[in-house]
Each structure stands twice: as structure tokens, then as C-alpha cells.
Amino acid sequence: DKTVSLRKDLSEMHEWITQAEEEYLERDFEYKTPDELQKAVEELKRAKEEAMQKEVKVKLITDSVNNFITKAPPAAHEAFKKELDVLITSYQRLCSRLNGKCKTLEEVWACWRELLCYLDVENKWLNEIELKLKATENIQGGAEEISESLDSLESLMRHPEDNRNQIRELAQTLTDGGILDELINEKLEKFNTRWEELQQEAVRRQKSLEQSIQSAQETDKTLRLIQESLAVIDKQLTAYIADRVDAAQVPQEAQ
What we know:
Strand content: under 5%
Radius of gyration: 41 Å
Largest sheet: none
Helix content: over 70%
Low-confidence stretches: none
């Protein structure tokens, strides 16, 4: 009876290990959506915890087999000892593989969340550029005011490339593993297209503002020259009036 009971325990444990390997380690997994990836992470965590809980069962079987060996005839020792060694080796291998896969998927999930964070930061920056471009679309004012707008736009455009590089690296890491590749490619294409379009528009706006500054400066210069000329004429007329000069004697340019 003891032999039958031990073999039953060993057999059930072997069967559980085989099923766990087939369910969590042997199947080919494809993660095409964040929900699928998150679900897989949670499943692996539960599987890892369940495997750890089986340690008590493995220890009980080990103690039972060792206890049986001390009392059973030598002929029965070898077979049970071998079965126990196979069980312990299989169990330890399963735990190691589950831990490894769980850690890998957790890192993949963290990588995905990090990618989303970088995309969010960069899209917020692109939103700022979009607003700045709209604000400077039909800007009115003198050279100084336009110059301030140009400085503000140029300051906003001096944005480090670090985040964009991180986005490329994180996306490459995930898609190389075939994880969320379609979704990531779609997000990156949308982001890169918007980035390029706004960069080009910003360059055009910078050139436009520079030309507007030059035109405003030329206008300011012309107005200043006119004002200076009018001041000189006004001074001459004032002097003529003070000297009671007849209008016919006033020079043609002063008239």
C-alpha cells in the first residue's frame, strides 16, 4: 500500500509538472495587444506562485520516499531513488524556467510602458510646437515683437534628441521579439510623420519670421528717416514763422 501511495504521489506531481510546462512554457505565444501581454504577465505570476507552493508537496514526497527507503528492502531502493531524483530535477527546472519567463515578460511589459511614457512626453512637446506655430501664423507688430516670437519658437525647437532615440531603441527591442509589433509600428509611423511635418513647418515659420523682422526693420528705418525729415522741416518752418518770413520766400521743399 505504501508503494502504491508513493507511486501515485510521484505520478501526480510528474503530471502537474508536464501540464505546467505545456501550458506556460511550450506553447508559442504571440502578443499583439497590450491586454494580451498584460494577461500573460499575470498568468505567469500566478503559475510561478503555484509552482512555489508545490515545494511543500515535493518536500513531503521526498521525505516519504526517503523514509520508505530506510525501511524497504534494498531491491526497491534504486527505482524509487531514481524517480525521486527525476522529480526533483524536473520541478527545479520548471521553477527556474517559470521564473525566467516571468521576469522576461515583466521586463517586456515595463519596456512597453516606458515606450508609452516617452511617446506621451514627445507628443506633448509636439502639441506645444503646434500651438506656437498657430500663434505666430499671422503675427502683427514691429521688429522687436516679431523677434521675441522667433526667439520663443527657436527656444522651443532646441529640444534634445534623447527621448526620440529612446523611443527608437525601445520600439526596436519590442518589435525584434515580435511583441506588439503591428501596434508599435503604427504608433511610430504616426509619431514620426507628425514630428517631420511640424519640424518642416517650424523651419518655414522661422524663415518667414526672419523675413518679417527684416521687413519691419526696413519699415522702421524708413519711418524714422521720414520723422527725422519732418522734424527738420518743422524746425525750419518754426524759424520762418518766428522771423515773419513771407510764404513766397519759403523754399519749395519746405512748402
